[in-house]
Each structure stands twice: as structure tokens, then as C-alpha cells.
Write a structure and sequence with these properties.
six-stranded mixed β-sheet; alpha/beta
Length: about 375
Amino acid sequence: MKVEKQPYSQTKALWAITRASFKAIFANPSAIIFSILFPIIFILIFGAFGNGGGPIYNIAITANSDTTGIFYEGLKRSPAIRLYKYSDTVSLNTNLQKGKITAVLAITTVNDSLGRPITSIQVKSTTASANTLGSFMPMLDYLRLKIETDKPGALETSIRIEKPEVKEVRKYRQIDFILPGQLGFSILFSTLFGIAFTFFGLREQLVLKRFYASPVNRINILLGIGMSRLFFQLMNVIVLIFFGHYVLNFTLVNGFATAGEMLIVTVIMLFQLMGVGLIFSSISKSDTSIPLLINLYGFPQMMLSGTFFSIEVFPAWLQEICRVLPLTQYNDAMRKIAFEGLSIVDCWREIGILGIWMVVTYVIAVKVLKWE
């Protein structure tokens, strides 16, 4: 009796590899500790940090303000005040909504009927800066009194500080900055270490060589192992997002829809990182060189991509470098979606740069990938 051969099922092969790799992840308890427990600890620690020391007031000056008078000079000399001029109103309004700027000052000087100068200070702020605006206004008034007291003879101008206009906005908490950075930090290192060591181990044990000689398509071998890592990291991201939301009041503007869009951005970032992991596993001569490569790639991004603090603290030339890093794009997109309520379409710039990084990564990976 002739037995008919069943056609080889690539789908079953893909599912079998994915399931086995997924089980292998949970067989290693350190994966769960580094991917979930450590980021939660970092979130709690950095989320509890205050500014420390004395308050620093970031003050924006309108473009048409009088910057030639003695009051503006007094603002410049104050060590507690940092003055900024914005040519871009969108950036100004965004920073106001996030509480990064204490207030916007409009300084105008006109002459009265006797020709004496009258300086008027208009103050605009938001409820996001309520914690610093309250102490800034007395300081502003003290500066006015100090100018009038120190130079009564030389100063014939009258300085008037108007009542501040405070716009009601959604409160920007520190956790709204910290948590997206911790998500990026978590998936960066856990994905790189997971993919690089997994593929290196499979290659050294000749498992990849056996897979390569089997009827399984090569792309299914890579996808099977990679997808298990992707699913695992997505589970971690879901845990961290909802832990931050329900325990630490992390802002999700549109609730579950916002969380869903954050996961889509995470998938894009994970595919880019999996390509980097493949490159490291292929060019490494021994498993001891893998951590070195990962740290050389990961730590500069961790420090320069707005993970723990804003890249605005760096010099302008360095900020330009920071803005092209893939982790910067991920962090920025996640913060825009979570707090500002933007959609993935609105984050086209960040997604586009991530896409370019992904193409470059896999072009290199195809050239260096080793099966034995």
C-alpha cells in the first residue's frame, strides 16, 4: 500500500520554533528580573526624585520684548533664572504645557506724558508650572524693588508687574517623562542581550546549522526565534505601562487606544534592535565580546537619548547628534503619544528615522549573518 507524503508545513515549523524559544525565555529567571523588576525599581527611584537644591526658573521672553532696559539686565544677572527666546511657537507652547517653562514674560516700555519710561511686565503661564510660578512671582517683585532701591537716582522708570495669566492645562508629572525612557532602557538592553546570546549559542551548538539543512525556510527560523523575543518584550512593556498608569498616575490621554499605539511604536523599535542583536551575534568571536559590543552601542544611547533627563541639558551641537539616535526617536514618540495625545501618523518624523535605522541595520545583518 502506497503511503502519500504529507507536504511539509512551514507554518507548523514556525510555530514550533516560536513556542520552544518562548519556553526557553521563561526557563531563565534572570530574563524576567532584568526586563520587569529592574525597570520598575528604576521608575520608582527616578520618579521620586525632585529637582534638588534651590529652584531654577526657566523663563521665556517674547520676541518683541524690550531687552535693552535695566529690568531685563536684572533678570539676566539672577542666578536662579534661565532666559530663553523661542522662534518656534509650537515648541514654546509644548514646553509650557509640560511645565518645562515657568512663565513667558512680555516686557514693554512706553513713555508717559512727561516722557518718563514705564516698563510693564506681562506674565503668562500654565497650571503645569504652578509649583514654580508661586515662588517666581515674589522673586520677580523682589527684583523690581531691588532695582528701584539700588539705583534710585539713575532710574527714573516705573516698573509694573501685571497679574499673571494662568492657563488651565493637563498636569505634566515627572513620571510622564521617566516611564517612556525606562521602557526604552528596558527593551534596548534586554532585547540586545537576549537576541545576541540566543543566536550566538545556537550557532556555537550547531543548532542553526541543522536548522539551515532542514526544509524550514531560513526566514522562518529567524522569525520563530525573533518573534518569541518580541512577544516577551511586548508583555513587559504592557506590564510597565499599566503599572505606571494605575500605580503612579502615568498619563494615557486616550486610555487603551494610547497604550495600543505605544505598543505599535515598540514593535518597530524591537525589530530594529533584533537586527542589531543579529549583527552582534554574527561578528562576535566569543560570548565574552557580546556584552562589550552591546554596551558600546547601548550606553551612549542610554545617556544621550533623553532616557533619564532631557537632551536640552547638552550643548547645541551635541543635541543634534542626540536627535538622530534611534532610542531618541522611540522615547520622543512614546512621550508624544502618551501625554500629548498624538497619533502614530503625527509622529511620522520619529517613525521615519526609526525606519531608516531599521533598513540600514538589516542591510548590514544580511551581509554578516552566519549560520555556522
